[in-house]
Amino acid sequence: MPPFARKRVVLTPEQRAMYRDEKVTNFRLVSSLVASYAPDTLGPDHVASAETQQYLSEIGAYAELAYSLLPIETVFKHLHVLLEPEFPLEGYPAEGLLNTSVVCSFVGRTADLPGFVAYRSDCRQLVVAISGTNVDSAVQALYDIRTLPHRHPSGRGKVHTGFWRLYKGIRDAALKGLKQGLRDFDVAEVVLCGHSMGSAVSQLLVLDLLRDDSLIGSVPMRFVGFGGPRVGTKGLVNLWRELVAKRRRRHGEHSFEEYAVKMHRDGVPVLPPKAFGYRHCVERPYYSRHGRLYHVPAHLGEYALFHVDETTPAFRLAHIFDHLVLHIIDALQHIHIHIQPQRPHPSPSPRWPQLLL
C-alpha cells in the first residue's frame, strides 16, 4: 500500500457531529466485505477540474432534495428560510436554488418513488431528479434487492428487475414533466440526476431518451449519478455506449455527458456483484475521497475503492454525498418545525451538520 494511503484523516467538528448523529443505514460494511482496491493509484493527473467539481456540487443539491418528505414545491417556496444559518439547507448553492422554478413533482406507481422536474433560469437548465431509497420504506428496499435480471425491451441485455419496476412506475410522469419543461422554458441543457437507487432509475430514463431521439431532440443531455449501483448486464451496457456514440455523432461531442461519482467506502457501486453479470453503464466514473474528486480510467471503471495521492489540493464538495454521511432525509423530516409565515429568528438549537465529505 502506498505510504500516503495510510495518512490519518483529521475530521472537522462538523464532520464529527455528522458521523455521531448518523441514524440511517450505511454501506461501509458492504464495501469492506465486497469491494476491492484498484491496482493503480489515482494521483494529480487524475484530479477533476474545479469547474467539473463545482458543476457536480450544484447538481448534487437537487439529487439530495429529491428525498424530501415535504412536497418539493413547499421546500422551494421556503428556500429563503431553509438556506439561513442553523437551518437544514445552510451552505447549499443559494444562487442556483433561488433561481429555480418547480415544473412538476411526481410519485411513482411502484413503491411511491418520488421525483421532480425543475428549471434553473440562471443557466437555462432543466433538471429531472429522482429519489433514492427512503430509509423508512421497506417496500423500496425490497425492490433494491430484487436482483434477478429482466430482459430489456430493446432485446439488448438484461436489467435489474427491481430498478426496472420502479422505473416503469415513474416513466410516464417523468417524461410528461420533461416535455412540459421543454415546452414552457428556454432550455439549454437537460440534466437527469439521482443518488443510489435514484441514480439507477435515472439511467433507465436516460436510456429511453437515447433510444428515442425525438423526446428531447438536439438539446444537450447530462446524466449525473451519485453512489449508483450497477443497473444491467453487459449487453445493456454495450447498448448504452453505442447510443451515446450515436448521439454524439449526430448532435456533436458535447450533446451527451455522463458523470457517475463513487464515494470512498460506499458499498452500493459494487452491487449487484459482477458475478451476477451486472456492469456499470458509465465507462469513466469519478471517485470522491476526502474532498478530492478524481477521474477514473476506463479500464478501472468497475472498481469501487482506490488508493489516492492525497498531496493534491482538496476541493470541498458541499453537496455531493453518499451513504457514509448524515442523510438529507433526516434533516428534511424536521423542516416543518422551522417554516414560519415570517422570517424567523436564528434557531437556538444546535447547528444542523453540513453535508460535507
From TrEMBL:
Pfam families for the chain: Lipase_3
UniProt domain Fungal lipase-type: residue ranges: 127-274
Superkingdom of origin organism: Eukaryota
One GO term of the biological process aspect: lipid metabolic process
Matches recorded under Gene3D superfamilies: alpha/beta hydrolase
PANTHER family xref list: ALPHA/BETA-HYDROLASES SUPERFAMILY PROTEIN, FUNGAL LIPASE-LIKE DOMAIN-CONTAINING PROTEIN
Protein name as it appears in the record: Triacylglycerol lipase
Organism encoding this protein: Mycena chlorophos
Lineage of the organism: Eukaryota, Fungi, Dikarya, Basidiomycota, Agaricomycotina
